[in-house]
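B., you asked whether I could sanity-check this one before it goes into the benchmark set. Here's the sequence:
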Amino acid sequence: MNQGFATLQAKYGEIRITDTGIREATIAGQGIGLALRGLRPIAEIQYLDYLLYAIQILSDDLSSLQYRTRGGQKAPVIIRTRGHRLEGIWHSGSPMGMIINALRGMHVLTPRNMTQAAGFYNTMLASDEPALIVECLNGYRLKEKLPANLGVYKVPLGVPEILQEGNDVTLVTYGSCCRIATEAAQQLKQAGIGCEVIDVQTLLPFDINHRIAKSLSKTNKLVVLDEDVPGGASAYMLQNILEEQKAFHHLDSVPRTITAKAHRPAYGSDGDYFSKPNAENVFDVIYEMMSEYDPEKFPSLY
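And here's what the prediction gave me:
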């Protein structure tokens, strides 16, 4: 579990911090049972890829529970996992399209770093609804400033955050891709392009106040960045922005999606780099978009 609960078992005992076998369906089932009995369990599934082994339990039993009992039963279990960019087929997948379609009835939260993740845990521990919290696996390698109110502050659901303001293009993303987006935005800034980077933070719910549409009323150009396969979470976000938020009224050019390649991530650092979108991909797509919009100011690079 990447030392996420290190030393806690010694501090709080084996009843509160319990070891279990690597059987994801059983872990999910135990979490549901504990939650139905009034506890507030956090069920650990080590990597996002292994959610596949528990998806039936989470879809048929947990996410549908309130719906099929008309609110008579609730199981506020938090499923904790981590994924996105790393290396190898079984440790760097991002099957978010599968997840958001299978888990309607649960919150799906995608914090970009561990500070935001802590805020989501505080939010959901005060809730009576189930949630999947997907931490950034490569975020464990980064250092962050420790908040003074770590166990208190909460992050609201369905509220995107603008990470960088800009007037030319709106770049929408989440999770580990936020670092890719902000890196690309700095490169684009040097080329005279102002990129507004928006972290949606949660996929279910998604931008309940239509902040993305408000950004598009200023920039008039949209790029959606995601490391799921083509047609995955990027298609979900794009449909929501264009149809639900009716943001197509604001667009001056065709919206673009930047996704991973249509295969499982390759082995090794180079394979993962070329399987998933990187800052250079983002720069090229957005520069090409600006070149089509204003070819005199942004002549073709190739």
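One thing to flag: Strands lie at 42-44, 78-83, 107-109, 131-136, 161-164, 169-173, 195-199, 202-204, 222-225, 256-258. Otherwise nothing jumped out at me.
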